[in-house]
Amino acid sequence: MTGKATRIELLSLSTPQMRAFHLTWMAFFVCFFAWFACAPLMPVLKGEFGLTPGQIANINIAAVAVTILVRLVIGPMCDRYGPRKTYTGLLALGALPVLGVALAQNYETFLVFRLLIGAVGASFVITQYHTSVMFAPNVVGTANAASAGWGNAGGGAAQALMPLLLAAVLMMGADHAFGWRIALLVPGVLMLIMAVVYYRFTQDCPEGNYSDLRARGIEISGKDGGKGGGWASFRAASANYRVWLLFITYGACFGVEIFIHNIAAMYYVDQFGLSLKAAGMAAASFGLLALFARALGGWLSDKAARRRGLDARTTLLFALILGEGLGLLWFAQAGNVAMAVVAMLMFGLFTHMACGATYALVPFIDRKALGGVAGIIGAGGNVGAVAAGFLLKGMGNVQQTLTVLGVMATIAALCAIAIRFSAEHKAREQALYDSALAN
């Protein structure tokens, strides 16, 4: 545990731990901004390409589908190549379809680029991996949740800023057919800039970069003891039942979050007759909860664990997902826009906190297969989002879909309670906790 930070010094960039903390949430913010940049412009794109409801559903499914595969792969890649190189590669390659979507000429090409853009959603796994190897057990939950939450806010920022960016382009004389294309170039350029910054100013772990450490004969695979890194890490994680229970719970919270990001603006326009800007601001309020709510979930998990150990983390996660499910049912039945926004903010608070509490638990599942654990559980979020997309396509009604999702989330909360740790596991984690504080 030597080298891991036992405190989060927000105003400092002097240590590799804090540089990783700040740059990883910034990279994540840019990736999420790019991932959801199309969503608030869908009312414009619907008219541009003459999209049917079925085609819009396909686009929303495509936006999250490929992320499942990439998240499964990206975790073991972090074990093998280190988060620094992995993140740089994802930012640089992910920028290509983000820039390419601005060139789409019809529904088919737009769908393909939207599918490929989904790969940048795997940035979340690298973010959580990087902070997990940089921070000690007493603060790792808060570090994971805060970095993920601030990065997640990129989705909310896209909801608010993309309509404003489009309006600014139109004010400069461009027409709608050309204006949305210019607006969508911005997130791609930001990703390329971030790739350079991340490679230049971060390192893989407190001791240095994995490649340098291995060159000196230090084996880093799996970071905290290693099971061979790469696919060995994935195999070890996939054999752990706790990973699959968290796979389900993360699908229930993050999957719902992604689904709401994709449909919120259209829902407010179609259901309540709001303008594009007003709908974008309403949808953005959900995403911007991540600025503090995810961090709050991780912080509460750390505080609970300090008093009652690992079991307290699972109990908290159960309560948060249960609150999310009940709040989602309220949102589905809201009869006016004011009540809908209030209900959305309420269930959104629980949703974001549950996401933070999930990844406050991830570093304690299997330290020797951290990349595999983070990747599989992260993929669960996107499986939940894809399932919600297919549910909407099958039911054809957003309100009914939200009701079913509320019921399913409430049931999924039971998976958190089912997670148990052996006395030996808890004793080992307590020893690591005490050791980190002593150092």
TrEMBL record:
Keywords: Cell membrane, Membrane, Nitrate assimilation, Transmembrane, Transmembrane helix, Transport. Residues 20-424 form the Major facilitator superfamily (MFS) profile domain. One of its GO terms (cellular component) is plasma membrane. It is a multi-pass membrane protein. It comes from the Bacteria. It is found in: Cell membrane; Membrane. Belongs to the major facilitator superfamily. Nitrate/nitrite porter (TC 2.A.1.8) family. This is Nitrate/nitrite transporter. It comes from Cupriavidus oxalaticus.
